[in-house]
C-alpha cells in the first residue's frame, strides 16, 4: 500500500514524529470558495505517488489568498511528470496546503528493509535536497546506515551515535534521537517497507520537522491493518483493481501475451519462459488453487480487457486440481467469453490425458502444447502474427 504525503503525515503524527502544519487537503475546485487558510505564505503541494514534485511544478509557495487560489486552480487536475513517473504523467486529484517553514538545514532520513542483513536499516544523510539515489552513487561516504533490531527497534546509543554523526546541535539532540527511534518504531508497527522523510528540516526558528513523507506498507500484513481499507488504491490500474476485487492475482505488464497460470511460482516461470522464447507477457495472472469455471471465466475476461493482448497462454499444473476438471472449466469458460485471439494451452499433472481429450473434443479452437517451452514458442509466434491465425 502506498500512501500520499498527507496520509503518511498522519502516520508520522501517530508515532510522534513532528510534521509541518497541514491547513487543508483540497480535492475539487468547488471546495476553493470555502477554503479558509489563515497563515501566509503557505505551501501548496500536489498529492501524487511520486517524488521529485518540487522540480516538476508540484510544490508551490503562495504569498496570499489570491495567489493560493490561482495556484490551486492550475494544480488541481494538472498532469504531472517527475523523474519518478517513468515517462508517464499522473493527474493531480488532491492538493495539500501546508505551513510554510524556513529551513536552516535539510537532511534525509528513511527506514527500509535490508534483505541481506534481515533487519530494518535506517539511512540518514546530512545533506538533503539532493536525491538519495544520486548521493549514494556520487558520495557514498555521506550516507549513514544503522541497522535496527527487528523487535526492539533503534537503541538509544545508536540514535545518539547518529545524532553525533549528523552534528545535531545540543538543543535538538533529544528531539532528534526520539524522532529516529520513532521512525524505526513506525516502520515495525505499521509493517512498512519504506518510511522516508525527505527533507527532514531544522527550521530557522529551531524546530525539527518532517516536511515531506513517503510511506509504503507491505500488503501481506493487511490482516492486521484494517485501517488501510480507508486508503484509496491510487497505484493499481483499473484492471488490477477489478482483479483484486474478485480474488485474482493480476499485475499488468507491457507485453502482448496474456497469461493464465495457477500458482505464483509457475506464473513467474511462465513469464521467464515467454521471455526466453522471444516474447513479452502482457500480465502476471495467478488464478490460485481453486481454478473453477467461474475463476477461469473471470480470468479470461480480465486478460481480454487489455487491448495489447494478441495471444493467450494458459499454463496449468494439475496437482490437487485434476487436469480433466480444469479442462472442463476452460471449455465452459471459453464458451462464456468471446476469446478473439489465439489460445495456447499447456496442461500437465494428474489426469492430463483425460484433460487433453476434453480440450481436443470441445470443438473450440485451442492450440495444445506438450510443454511450457512449446506453449511459449507457439504463443510468441501467434502473437507476432498480430493475433491473426493461418
Ligand atoms: P518532493 O520533491 O516530491 O519530494 O516534494 P517535497 O515535499 O520534498 O518538496 C520539495 C522541496 O520543496 C523540498 O526539498 C524543500 O526544499 C521545498 N519545500 C517544501 N516545503 C517547504 C516549505 O514549507 N518551505 C520551504 N522554504 N521549502 C519547502
Ligand atoms: Mn521529498
Bound molecules: guanosine-5'-diphosphate, manganese (II) ion
Tell me the series of helices and strands, N- to C-terminal: EHEEEHEEEEEHEHHEEEHEEHEHEHEHEH
- CATH overall fold name of the largest domain: D-amino Acid Aminotransferase, Chain A, domain 1
Low-confidence stretches: none
Q: What is the CA-CA span between the terminal residues?
A: 45 Å
**Share of helical residues:** 25-40%
Integer-rounded radius of gyration: 26 Å
Number of strands: 19
Name of the CATH superfamily of the largest domain = ATP-grasp fold, B domain
Task: Walk me through the structure.
By secondary structure, this protein is α+β, with helices and mostly antiparallel strands. Helix content is 32%, strand content 25%. Strands 1, 8, 9, 10, 11, 12 and 13 form a seven-stranded antiparallel beta sheet that branches. The radius of gyration is 26 Å and the shape is elongated. The mean pLDDT is 93.
Task: Summarize this entry quickly.
This protein is of the alpha+beta class. The chain is built from 11 helices and 19 strands. A hairpin with a 4-residue loop joins β8 and β9 (119-125).
Outline the secondary-structure elements.
Elements: E1 2-3, H1 5-14, E2 22-26, E3 42-46, E4 59-62, H2 65-75, E5 79-80, E6 90-91, E7 95-99, E8 103-114, E9 119-125, H3 132-138, E10 143-147, H4 156-165, H5 173-189, E11 192-203, E12 208-210, E13 214-217, H6 238-245, E14 249-252, E15 257-261, H7 264-276, E16 283-286, H8 293-304, E17 311-318, H9 323-336, E18 343-349, H10 352-361, E19 367-369, H11 372-384
Parallel strand pairs: 15-17, 17-18, 18-19
Antiparallel strand pairs: 1-13, 2-7, 3-4, 3-7, 5-6, 8-9, 8-11, 9-10, 11-12, 11-13, 14-16
Helix pairs in contact: 4-5, 8-9, 9-10
This protein binds guanosine-5'-diphosphate (GDP) and manganese (II) ion (MN).
Amino acid at each position: 500500500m502506498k500512501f500520499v504525503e498527507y496520509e503518511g503525515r498522519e502516520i508520522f503524527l501517530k508515532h510522534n514524529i513532528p510534521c509541518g502544519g497541514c491547513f487543508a487537503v483540497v480535492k475539487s475546485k468547488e471546495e476553493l470558495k470555502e477554503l479558509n487558510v489563515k497563515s501566509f505564505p503557505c505551501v501548496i503541494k500536489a498529492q501524487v505517488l511520486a517524488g521529485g514534485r518540487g522540480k516538476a511544478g508540484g510544490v508551490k509557495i503562495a504569498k496570499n489568498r489570491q495567489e493560493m487560489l490561482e495556484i490551486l486552480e492550475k494544480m488541481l487536475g494538472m498532469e504531472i511528470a517527475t523523474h519518478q513517473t517513468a515517462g508517464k504523467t499522473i493527474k493531480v486529484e488532491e492538493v495539500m496546503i501546508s505551513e510554510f517553514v524556513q529551513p536552516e538545514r535539510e537532511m534525509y532520513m528513511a527506514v527500509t528493509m535490508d534483505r541481506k542483513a534481515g533487519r530494518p536499516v535506517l539511512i540518514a544523510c546530512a545533506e538533503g535536497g539532493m536525491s538519495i539515489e544520486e548521493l549514494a552513487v556520487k558520495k557514498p561516504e555521506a550516507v549513514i546506515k544503522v541497522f535496527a533490531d527487528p523487535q526492539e527497534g533503534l537503541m538509544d546509543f545508536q540514535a545518539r551515535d547518529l545524532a553525533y554523526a549528523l552534528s545535531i546541535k545540543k538543543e535538538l539532540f533529544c528531539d532528534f534521537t526520539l524522532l529516529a527511534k520513532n521512525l524505526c518504531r513506525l516502520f515495525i508497527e505499521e509493517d512498512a517497507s519504506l518510511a522516508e522523510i525527505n527533507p527532514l528540516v531544522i527550521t530557522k526558528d529551531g524546530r525539527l520537522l518532517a516536511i515531506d513523507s513517503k510511506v509504503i506498507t507491505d500488503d501481506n500484513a493487511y490482516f492486521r491493518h484494517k485501517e488501510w481499507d480507508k486508503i484509496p488504491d491510487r497505484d493499481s490500474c483499473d484492471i488490477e483493481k477489478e482483479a483484486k476485487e474478485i480474488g485474482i492475482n493480476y499485475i499488468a505488464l507491457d507485453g502482448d501475451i496474456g497469461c493464465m497460470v495457477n500458482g505464483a511460482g509457475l506464473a513467474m516461470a511462465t513469464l521467464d519462459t515467454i521471455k526466453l522464447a522471444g516474447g513479452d507477457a502482457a500480465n502476471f495472472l495467478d488464478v490460485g488453487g481453486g481454478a473453477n469455471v467461474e475463476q477461469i471465466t473471470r480470468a479470461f475476461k480480465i486478460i481480454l480487457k487489455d487491448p495489447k493482448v494478441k495471444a493467450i497462454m494458459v499454463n496449468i499444473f494439475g496437482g490437487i486440481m485434476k487436469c480433466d476438471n480444469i479442462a472442463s472449466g476452460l471449455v465452459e469458460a471459453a464458451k462464456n467469453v468471446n476469446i478473439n485471439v489465439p489460445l495456447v494451452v499447456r496442461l500437465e499433472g494428474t489426469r492430463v490425458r483425460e484433460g487433453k481429450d476434453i480440450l481436443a473434443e470441445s470443438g473450440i479452437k485451442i492450440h495444445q502444447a506438450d510443454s511450457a517451452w512449446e506453449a511459449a514458442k507457439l504463443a510468441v509466434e501467434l502473437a507476432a502474427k498480430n493475433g491473426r491465425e493461418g
